[in-house]
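Reply to dn_fold:

You asked what the input looked like. This is it:
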Amino acid sequence: MVALALAQVSLALVALVAPVRVQGMLSTHMPRPTMPRLPLAMSISKSELPPGIAGRVSFQTGGAKTAGQDEEIVILWKALQDCFATRDLAEAAVRKNSAVILPQLNSPTKIKGAYKLLVTRFGKKGAAEILEKNPGILVCTPGSLEKQSDEEILKAANLVAFLDENKLPIKIISGGAFLAIVVSIVYRIISVRYGLN
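and this is what came back:
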């Protein structure tokens, strides 16, 4: 009996949480696009961006494309490459944090300004170490980065590196915590409904 109630409550929770697609709810008067949009990964020249980077950017933007976006991404990519000793290191940075070449979030001025500030404060070697740990720092404006102490910048880079190195344990812990919450809610519902206190 308790197992049946547990199953019913679990199904009810899944029904509440899971996205439900209801047919016929969309207006039939909505205009449909006549031509499918060309995905960003297909519209950027393969010679301008490394393989896999265009697809990653396309995924980050949901495939949506705005006017001039291709050119802006290539400009950001070229500015980003100037911050790294090799093209491979720049690719690794984009794979770690693709926000650095998203025109919606970044600009060549931010990249160049943040990099210049890092080199001034930490030297080329120190800046390279920080960028390897946290390439997302190049999305910060130079003005906001200037207000941060050296210690804060290093702590942020180390935190990002720690989180990146421990993705699997963090996912396991967060998944376990979510499961524990769901189980405790289900248990509470069943105990109240059937008086199991």
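Residues 38-175 form one domain.
Hope that clears it up.
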